[in-house]
Amino acid sequence: MLKITTAEFLQGVSDLRQLPKNELREVLFIGRSNVGKSSLLNKMCNRKNLARSSSTPGKTREINYYIINNAFYFVDLPGYGYAKVPEQMRAGWKRLIEDFLKRGGPIALAMQLIDSRQEPTPLDLMMMDWLDYYEVPYLLVLTKADKLPVSKLTKQLEGYRSRFNSQLSEGCCRGIVPFSIVTGDGRSELLKLIEDHLNHAPKQKKEAI
Ligand SMILES: Nc1nc2c(ncn2[C@@H]2O[C@H](COP(=O)(O)OP(=O)(O)OP(=O)(O)O)[C@@H](O)[C@H]2O)c(=O)[nH]1
Ligand SMILES: [Mg+2]
């Protein structure tokens, strides 16, 4: 299984011209504000404060790059869905994220995070559509699994599996994994899936419609 030995913050990117010069494979962390992206990233690296947790949700506009094992990147994308963000910023976010996904090649795997207690929001569904369209392999990670009793979590998982059956069988969804930073559930499964995808050949770039 993949073992994370080193993890360092590299840089924040707010414009694609600032992407790291050294093009390594990337594992993306995507999801609405407060869903647990930075917490997941920290837990994967067994570090408490590696990923900066924004005290003001919706304020982080940067794509944060972390270099792992000096071999690949963890990329923490700005959270979306924060109500107080002005429309102009929202449009900027969409353009940045879509251009980012279009690059194809370097992206090994995306983790699409959704709170295990909730249903996907319209923006979550839009993100999944983009990932399918740009042929980015992704996992649905159901966060904060410790907050649900096991029976309810099982039910949620079944619901997600049947709802996204076509993405799982014909689209780019490679699995649905419950996760908790409290119990560590899901961590080893994610490490295994990340390792598998880092070893896959890169995809070609796909043009927008
Ligand atoms: N109980 C529990 N709380 C969690 C879990 N994951 C995250 N949290 C809490 O949820 C809150 C938000 O977590 P973050 O990791 O900062 O969320 P984020 O997606 O990075 O948020 P933004 O950076 O604002 O987009 C924090 O208070 C975390 O402690 C989990 O697995 N279990
Ligand atoms: Mg964060």
CATH superfamily grouping = P-loop containing nucleotide triphosphate hydrolases
- Count of individual helical segments: 6
Q: Return the string of H and E elements.
A: EEHEEHEHEHHEH
CATH architecture: 3-Layer(aba) Sandwich
List the ions, cofactors and other small molecules found in this model. Answer: guanosine-5'-triphosphate, magnesium ion
What global shape is seen? Answer: globular
Strand proportion: 15-25%
Can you walk me through this structure?
The chain is α/β, with parallel strands linked by helices. It has a single domain, classed as Rossmann fold (3-Layer(aba) Sandwich), CATH 3.40.50. It has six helices and seven strands; from the N terminus they run ββαββαβαβααβα. The longest helix has 16 residues, at 87-102. The protein is globular, with a radius of gyration of 16 Å. Guanosine-5'-triphosphate binds at residues 31, 33-39, 53-54, 57, 60, 79, 143-144, 146-147, 180-182.
What labels describe this entry?
209 residues; alpha/beta; Rossmann fold; 7-stranded mixed beta sheet; 6 helices; 7 strands; 22% strand; binds guanosine-5'-triphosphate; binds magnesium ion
Q: What is the topological layout?
A:
Blueprint: E1 7-13, E2 26-31, H1 37-44, E3 63-68, E4 72-76, H2 87-102, E5 107-115, H3 122-133, E6 138-143, H4 150-163, H5 165-169, E7 173-178, H6 187-198
Parallel strand pairs: 2-4, 2-5, 5-6, 6-7
Antiparallel strand pairs: 1-3, 3-4
